[in-house]
Amino acid sequence: MRALFLGLALFTSLTAAGLASAEPVHGIAMHGAPALPAGFKNFPYVDPQVKKGGHISYGVVGSFDNLNPFILKSMRTTARGMLDPEYGNLVYDSLMTRSRDEAFSLYGLLAETVEWDEDRTFIQFNINPKARWSDGRPVTPEDVIFTFEIFRDKGRVPFASRLDKVAKMEKVGDRSVRFTFNEKSDREFPLLIAMTPIMPKHATPVETFDQTTLTFPIGSGPYKVASVTPGERIVYERDPNYWAKDLPSKIGQDNYDRISVEYFLQDNSLFEAFKKGEIDIYPEGSPNRWARSYDFPAVRSGEVIKDTFSPKTPSGMLGFVFNTRRAMFDNPKLRQGLALVFDFEWVNKNLYDGAYTRTQSYWQNSGLSYLGQPADDRELNLLGDIRNRILPGVLDGTYRLPVTDASGRDRNVLREAVTLLREAGYTIRDGQMKNADGQQLAFEIMTQNEGQEKMALAYQRFLAAVGIRAGVRTVDDSQYQQRSQSFDYDIIIKSFPSSLSPGIEQVGRWTSQSRNREGSDNFAGVADKDVDTLVNNILQARSQEDFTAAVRAHDRMLVSNFYAVPLYHVASQWVGRHKRIGRPNTVPLYGYGLPTWWDVDAQTVTASPASQTPAGQPPQQGKE
């Protein structure tokens, strides 16, 4: 009887933890179920019939001195393509991979199947028996465990903190790894574990892992590093034995035999190289150039194609970000007043030919935005007393930044700004905006390129109109990265991209735990228990309705506190490409995806083995 009792108790315990009832599944989603069923053939936005072969040359501005994307040292000068949201993770595979056509769904990659319980107290990854490293050795549970341990000990954020929410990590059977979570975990966290790239235990130097390196790594991804010219060029070669090339989540992707990433000191040099055909693709960010500069011979002849894409994603936020670690910016009234001084209408008219739309919300153009949405009972319940810190117009969804007369000195708007600055303790005396001690309000705006500098100089003029002295300092790339990582600035221009599935990145951008963590994205230096609460609500939401309410509440708090001067956005994505590069007709939810594009020339000839495909001619002109 005692044995029977113990057996029943053990079964009850396992069931309560979800271990006995969990069934292997092919995919998981943040909310609800993944859209694609078990046995799906490929993602809907790829061309499954495309032939692999040929080559592509990407171009970027900057430099690189490192091939390890997982460490803090040289984090922002790691070679592109190693761990890359634009070009793809060319060298390292993760346990699962994301669909670009769903808000947040993952499908099997290194993990053939996954198991978890409804409460997400654990997740188990069952490794695909076909999974191999580029040296032919199998991917094992020991590799997964090793990866998380070395990230914890020597990695950078967010990888370094992955195990903070794990109570136990263990090998289960021959091919499985189970993560059991502690009380710090949230409902998004299992998906972040699934998206973590995995490293080979047998080929990773532990002692020197936290040092920069140009040693070619061994990975499990579709490409190997073929050659490196530090600071100038990195070339990747497709692995013809890539283990996952026939997986449904990989069909129609990784289509080139060779990928070259060329580095330029200036964007103008990069654009000239694109015009001459030395670079194959140019994602365009300037409306002025898109409208005026694509009249060169290759465009007129049809050699260069202009593509416009319309993703169904939120706007994100680009803005002048106040470093609230500086005492002068610790007052929301002052930040709001400074935000009103910026004359967007003047800038849009005189610098950008009216091409931009003013950004009013961090999730504009989506159902997650506060715009036009009064806070309902569900959201008010989440806000609690925090609602008293939300501007009334933001709470009822009607608030908009004031529209000026585009003169650069709109008296009505400046009067409102001066009133807010007075409430923050500043008044105009002798033509200068001064505090009670007679000190003029003065600060520096740090920029990293000519485009940012031009906008900052305009803001400088607007501020001078109310007696504020603003310096503008444009620094080189290395200094910019070092100072932004260590938060050594007064004001900086930064972009906060947004998605339909915000989550853990909000912790890194806005919460107390990231304020003083070097290399984090908390550029505003926010450390506010109410913001922490609202971010946690997002992470703990169990239903789509609760999730939407949580994001809107967070949006209202960010907008009301003016951590940034909202700038602008465009609803479209612009890409110039040489006609040799083809793309699928279907555009997914998140917009175009470069890993699904291909070399058109390779479709009419038998693709050479990756090891025999000739490299493209390196750029000879336009490079600096």
Question: What does it look like?
Answer:
It is a single chain. With 624 residues, the protein is of the alpha+beta class. The chain has 16 helices and 25 strands. The strands form 8 sheets. Strands 19-18-20-14-21 form a 5-stranded mixed beta sheet. It has a 4-stranded mixed beta sheet with strand order 2-11-10-9. Strand 3 and strand 4 form a beta hairpin. Helix 7 runs antiparallel to helix 11 (411-423), helix 9 crosses helix 16 (544-561) and helix 14 runs antiparallel to helix 15 (529-540). The longest helix has 18 residues, at 544-561. Mean pLDDT is 92; it is low at 1-20 and 606-624.
Helix content: 25-40%
Q: Cα distance, first to last residue?
A: 82 Å
Q: In percent, how much strand structure appears in the residues?
A: 15-25%
Arithmetic mean pLDDT: 92
Sheet with most strands:
5 strands, mixed
Strand order within the widest beta sheet: 19-18-20-14-21
C-alpha Rg (nearest Å): 26 Å
SS field, number of helical segments: 16
The dominant shape is globular
Low-confidence stretches: 1-20, 606-624
Helix and strand composition category:
alpha+beta
What is the number of E strands?
25
